Amino acid sequence: MTHKMKTQPILVPVDFSPCSEEALLYAADLAATLQFPLIVLHVVHDPGQAPGYYAMKGRKKQLRRMEDIAADMMEDFMNAMKKKHPDQPAMATAETSLVVGLPVTRILETAAKVKAGMIVMGSQGRTGLAHVLLGSKSEQVVRLSPIPVTIVKAKAKAKAKAKTKPDVRDKK
Asked: 103, 169, 168, 172: which is closest to 140 by C-alpha?
């Protein structure tokens, strides 16, 4: 491994979902083991036609910029992750970044800008019609990225619950 590779950060795009949590944990373990810096990225999806403001729930006629809300969400997400996983030194020292645009484009641009050595991102693992209609940002990043991309799937809590519940068919 060359010295140049040692200084390349691991980029972790997050959308604050359980999939993102799993990806961040995986990347934090990897970064700590390899002694790589960790950059956590959130892309505020602003398609251009939509105004860049959200109405706040519970507050009458108050609008806030999407970037401001996303920044608050990023701070809350990182604080919650650090509190849940105090044993993760890479997470404690992770740099955060917030950009606006189309997620796949901005992920790839940010990876190039920070000279990332790899990208670690979560995937919801949609299949069938949902995958065809919604596509997969992670799949697009894998196809277009010039650097390695690791996709991490969230642990299925529903599957764990299904295993612990008795099967109705067994009660004959």
From this structure: 103
The pair phi, psi for residue 83, each rounded to 5°, is -70, -40
pLDDT score, position 9 = 97
DSSP string computed for the chain: --HHHHTPPEEEE--SSHHHHHHHHHHHHHHHHHT--EEEEEEE---SSS-SEEEPTTSTT-EEEHHHHHHHHHHHHHHHHHHH-TT-HHHHT-EEEEEES-HHHHHHHHHHHTT-SEEEEEE----HHHHHHH--HHHHHHHH-SS-EEEEEPP-HHHHHHHHSPPGGG--
CATH code that applies to domain 3-166: 3.40.50.620
Question: For the chain, what are the domain ranges?
Answer: 3-166
pTM: 0.78
Q: What is the pLDDT of residue 166?
A: 46
Nearest residue to 22 via CA among 122, 148, 158: 122
Give the phi and the psi of residue 46 in degrees, each rounded to 5: -120, 95
- Residue range 117-170, pLDDT digits in tens: 999 999 876 555 544 444 588 889 999 999 999 999 877 653 343 344 444 444
pLDDT at 134: 43
pLDDT at 59: 55
Radius of gyration of the chain (CA): 18
